[in-house]
Structures are given as structure tokens and as C-alpha cells.
Design goal:
The complex is a heterodimer of chains A (319) and B (596). With 319 residues, chain A is mainly α. Chain A has twelve helices and no strands. Chain A is globular, with a radius of gyration of 24 Å. The termini of chain A are close together. In chain B, 21% of the residues lie in helices and 19% in strands. The chains are: A mainly alpha (319), B alpha+beta (596). The interface between A and B is large, with 55 and 76 residues.
Chain lengths: 319, 596
Amino acid sequence: MGRYILRRLLIAVPTLTVIALVIYVMLATAPGNPLGALANDDRISAETRIRILQTYGLDKPPIERFFAWFTAILRLDFGDSFMSHSPVMGLILLALPNTLAVVGVAYIVGIVLAIPIGIISATKRYTAWDMGATGFAYVGFTLPTFLTGTLFLMIFTFWMHWLPYAYDSNLQVRDLASFGQQVKQSIMPIMVLGLFDTAILTRYVRAEMLEHLPLDYVRTARSKGLREQGVILGHVLRNSLIPVVTLVALGIPGVFGGAIITETIFRVPGIGQLLINSISTGDIPVAAAVLFMFSVLVVAFNLVADVLYAVLDPRIKYA
Amino acid sequence: MNGPSVSPRKLLAIGAMLALTVSACAQTTVTPSPSAAPASPTGTAKPSALFTRGQGGELKVLYWQAPTILNPHQATGTKDGDPSRLVLEPLASYGPDGKPIANTLAASIPTVENGGVSKDLTTVTYTLKPGLKWSDGSPFSVDDVVFTFKYQSDPKSAVTTSDDVDGVKSVEAVGTDKIKVTYEKPNANYYQWGVYSGFVLQKAQFGSCIGEAAAKCPANLKPIGTGPYKIVDFKPNDNISFALNENFRDANKPFFKTISWKGGGEAPTAARAAFQTGEVDYAWNLQVDAPLLRSLSTASDAKANLVTVYGNSVERILINFSNPDPALGDKRAEPDTKHPYLTDIAVRRALAMATDRATVGKELYGDGLAGKATCNIINGPEQYNSTATASLDVCKFDLAAANAELDKAGYVKGADGVRAKGSVRLEMTYQTTNSSVRQSTQTILKKNWEAIGFKVTLKAFPSSTFFTNTSPDGANHFWADVEMYTSSGAPDPILSLRPTWTTKNIASKANNWQGNNYARYSDPTYDKLIDDLSAITDPIKYVDAVKAANDYLVKNVIIIPLVNRTFATSGVSKTLKGVNPSPWDQETYNIQDWYK
């Protein structure tokens, strides 16, 4: 197992290098530059533009810029934002708590809801319960978040006037009242994203449960005289959750990557907004850092998922 | 319509002695008319009796683009410049009528009459208000002003405001309260450095941030200033918390104790937050579809008023004088190529006559809500507006006349309805940025132009790839036959007239498409018009020469102006008073006068 992990880690090095190269060169060759917002301003001379772009190093070829950038990130130096002239890491650390408070909480809500709904839906197959849960799941993952998000905002904020239009990152949860405010300002994006996560996970839990229910060991457990609840939770669920756990692990990088559309709609200043803003303003250091860290997490959690799989299922052995 | 909205960051004015008339026009606004605004040159006629310092609570401001930096010299857009103005100030501002006002550091506006401006227009002397202090309590000094000039003019500082110091020989201290700006040669735009430019940085804070150190300076995110507010906390890409500056020069101002400045999201919900729920007091740049904007802002229970002001932000059709044919390879749209039919004035005239700008202005810009149709390329300050163009045939929508023009020039309709003259077919590509208003404009004009025998292919690109010199789909490359966008102007029209159409500024491969003359228009007559214009120092003659240049461009269809868009389009809470946007300065230039 140890050797397996080591081998996987070694393979990750070239993988990430290639990913980094692709990310950087794509960003560097994409049109758009940090002066884009001033681009149609006649009063800024060509010389000024060129001089500023030179200070960003944008006059050098993308490959040369890539090597400078990549050797810097090996020293964990992600450079400075073109727009804020401040360290990229600081900007990411400002955005991350907001993303975790919304996208992270939504993910947890999704998991917590999906497991019981999936169980009920599988054990009461083809009943009204199951139909309802299946219908909910289909609605959940067919409705795009830009639609549900906009709808929620129109209804709860602009029509009912119940919830705030924006997420206030300065709010500190100290007492019950401020916790209530936090709930109010994050409930809509959490519902939008949670609906989506729940929908997908529910389908997996249900499918896995259905696969295990007719198996021999379940019949054995029942014939031993175990209570149905014990059979379902102690035996069927435990085995069914193995692929679900790996799926959940694989989804964790997505939590850190933020949710571009939902964050924009509800004005949550998280990683998703940081990424989309940096791409549209040509702020390459920020965009490259966010995308690269996301790639590292994807590679890392793939490994975590595989290891978890072996830990949870003794039949699986890596050599 | 969501192309980057650019505020006239750098302005030059032709002089205070011009009797400028009022160009601002308020919509459904609670604000006083510009003449009632604190526009007095002495800056003393302030409604200071209206309130006392810190009387109000929190002011909530929403910009749907989030701020990223608060040093205006390093800023790259309105989103940064507007909030930084609450803290960092120039010596003076531009009022709604394009005239300078002394609402910041200078005690009065220097003019030739009062001796502040030398007769030869090379030096300008500003006198500072007495007893000025920085928000940290330290005294403000002339050295800070001199330092700021040094900071700006160091090429290694790489400031976005370096054009403000272009042609400025020196900025020196005279005694302890005077600043003397000297230009290299007589400058008709003698407020170039000082009015809405040269935002003064604190030497103590930025002293070590000059040159190469300028970019990495932490002070860029939390500058100490002289403005009515100071920065308490700034989260880049998110929000700013301001508190009132206890050391502000006017003991009665500002009104609000704190300002919460939220950034991000998009315009339609920003408009709803202002008009429907009233959660924000001031919402910036509400460029949404005209029908939605109208219904939101005129609803009986609307919590805010729509405040607009016209400057010179003209949505225009650029005509390509070079040949964008891809078959030319490396030569594509280079200045030495010639467009097969757009260099023919008859075709351009026909195109202009078949352009229904009135419908675009009415249907898409709400006839004055977010813009109004115009056939001038210079639309303000008021005295520069030409009245001669209105009667020109190229400014009137007349399909029959357009058809006749093309018939006369020998372009014959083929079986497919497309006109051709020999092998030259009137097929064109019409490009712009992605936005619902622009795509609707494209649809209307395509229909117009196809009615007279053009074949029009429409293209639209994201503004991030359109407004850049590096993209083949960009406005600079102009690899299309016509293109459409908005460019904003300064109080001095020469700043638009010179770069956009003179030969010297042609964009080409050689200068990496950095020139501002994307149309590749080269005309010795026009070049001379502009050379002569820049030599004029008599304000009356100057106005006439500007009008002549405008008329020349319109009459010869070098450009097709469509709509003069509102400069500010803000949602202002019905309880918020004192907002009086100037199209020649930032929307926040008078925030010390805002109150409830």
C-alpha cells in the first residue's frame, strides 16, 4: 500500500507539470489583458499601454513566462495579482472562507440529505416515496443553477423581500442573531447548490442499495433474524456506501474550486468569482494559481478516493 | 451595452474662461440642477448648513464590478477609480458643466484673469486651502503634491495615469501653500495636471513605493488620503468599509459615519436591489434593457430614482478603410491596403443614409433613458455640439436616397438581391461585443442595410476579447468591414478627434495594433484640420474648429455616430440627496456633499 501511494505520488509530478503548462499557456495566449477595461479609452496612449504591459512581463513569450511562473510556484510563490498588485495567495485566502461557507456547507447538506432519501427510495421502491424522490432528483440535476439561482433571488429577495441580495463577507458569527443573519445570507446559494448535490448523490445511493438488496448476504442476515433496520443500516448501507464515499471524496476539489455562476448571482465573493473576474480581466497570476491549485486537489483526492476504496473494501488490494 | 464603461479618467480642459453652458441633463432626479450645485469657482458656496458631520449612519453603495486596488495611479477601471476618490483627491474637480470646481485641495481655480494661469499658457499656480490634514492627522504639505508628480512621471512606476504628466515640465512648490505646474510649451489644456488628475499621494506613505517598488506596494490597497472618508478595511474583489475622516477640511462634512461599498454580481439584480428592495442607496452603472430599466425606475413603489447625465459616450459604427480580406494573409487590413468598396464615398453615404439611428435610440436606449440618437461624434460639453449635421442627407434615414446613391455609383443588384460593381460585391462583416442591446442594434441595422442591397454577416465577441490589441477578433485588428462600440470623451474634444482618425495613430501590425485609429483612416486634409486645431489658443475659434472637424467626419462618413449614451446611469435612493454626477469627472467627485 505504501509503495502504491508512493508510486501514485511520483506519477502526479509529471501529470501536474503538464497540467500547469496547459493552464498557463492557455491563459497566456488567450486574448484579453489587464488594461482591457481601458481598451477603448482614446486618452491612454499606446506608449503607456506598452509600458504597463511590460512591467507585467507580458511582452515575453508565453513559454518563457511559464517557466518563470512554474519555478516560482515550486517555491510556493504564486506571485502578485496584476489587478491588486498584492500576493495571489492573500486574495485566495480572502475568498476561500466564503466559498467554504456556501459551497462547502451546500455539499455537506447534499450528503446529509442524499443518504436517507436514497435509502428510503431504494427500500420502498416504486412507492409514492420513491417516485417523489426520483422526481426530485431529476428536477434537481436537470435545472441549471443559473435558473434556480435567479428564480430564488427573484422570489425571496425582490418579491418577498425576505432575504438579502448579497453575501456580506464582513459578517462575523458571534451570537444567535448574527448566526441568523449568516443563515439568511447563505441559505439561497446553499439551497441551489445543495439541491444539485443532493439530486446526484441520491441517485447513486439508491442505485447501490438496489444492487445490494437482493444479494445472498442480505438474505443471510435476515434469516439470522436481524431486524430489518439492522439489515439495511448495518449491512446493505455499509456496503453500498463504499462507492458513494469515493464519489464524495472526488467531489471535494469542486468545493474548493467554488461555484462561478451561483457565487456571481448571489454576490458571494468566493473562489468562483475570483476565478471568473481574473480570467475576464486577464489577471493571469490569479487565474493560473486558482486553476493549478484546483488541479492539485483533483489529483490528490483521486488518490485519496482510491486509498479509501481499499481501506473500506478489504477485497481490494493495491500492490 | 456592457462594454467596459470608461470614465474620462484623464481629462484636459480648454479653460475656465470659456463660458460653458450646462450640458448635464437630469432624468427623474432629485438632485439640484448643475447651476445650483457647488460649482462656484471658489468652492465656498457649499450647502454646509444642511447637515453636520457624522449625522447620518451608513451609506450603502453597490458597484457590480468589484474593486481590486485603491490607488488611482495603478487602477485599471472605474471600479477602482470611483472608490479611491473618497480618499485620494486631485487639486480640483470638473463640475457637471465641464468647468473646474475647487471642491478639493485647491482654494480656488486658477485662471488667466486671476493671474493663476500665465498669459502664455505655460504655467498654472494653485493655492492650497489652509490647514489641510491627512486622515492620519499629519499635516498636508506641498511636498506631497511634488512627490506625487515625481511618482507619476517615473516610468518605472508604470502608472496608468502617466499621460497626465505627458508634456508637463515640472510641478514645484512655491512657498508653503502654492503649487506651480509648468508645461514644456504653451498648453491650451492647462488643467491637464491638477484638475481630475494628479491624485495626491501621501509622501510619508508612498515614499518607498516609487519606481519599481510601486507595483508591490501594500499602500496601494489602503492609501491614506485627504478625502471625506478613510479606508477601514478593503477586501479586494469584494468590498470596502469606509469611515468618515475626522480630519476632513470641512468641519460639517461628511454626513455619513460609514460607507459600505459592495462590489460584484451583475447589473440587472443591482438595479432591482436599488429600485425594488431599496437595500442599497447608490447603485452604479445600471445598464440593463431599456424596458426593464423603465419599469423598475418608474414603478410607483420604486425605492430609488434613476439619475443619468450625458457626456460624450458615443456608440458608433467604425468603417474600415483597409482591406480585411483574409486572402491577403500578412497584409490583411494593413494600412497600405484599400477597402474594395468602403473607400468609395458613395457606398459610405448610402450606408449612412440607410442607418435608422432613431429606431435604435428609441427601441433600445429608451429615447433618453440610457441614450439618445445622435449624428455628431462630439456631443459635449454643450458648446461643441454641432447643429450643422442635422440637415445633412447622411444623417437622415432614407432608403430611397440610399438606393439611388448606389445606383448612381454603378452598383447593380444581382439575382440574389446583393449589389455588385464588377467583381466587387457589397458583402460585409459587422462585428461588436456580446450584449443584448448591441445584438439588437445589429439586427436592426442589418435589416436596414440589406434593404439597399448589402449582404451583412453579424459577429459578436466577449468584450474581454474585443477590446484588446492581441485578439484577431478585436476592435484593434478590425478584421471586419464595420464594427461598433462606444468610446467616451473628455471635456476637450481633441482628445478623441486626434487619436482616432489621424494618420499618425493608425493601428497596424508594426505597432502591434496599439494605435487608436482602428479604421486605418488616412487623410491629409483631416490631419491638417487637427494640427491647426491643436495650435489654436482662442477659445471661440477653438469651438468652431472642433465643430468643423466633427462635421468633416460626419459629412464624409468617416464614422457613423449612432447614440449618445448616458455617462452615469445610477439608481439613487429617494432619500439620498446631493448626488449630482459630472460626466467629466468621477461619479463620486462630490460624495462629501451627499446626505439623507
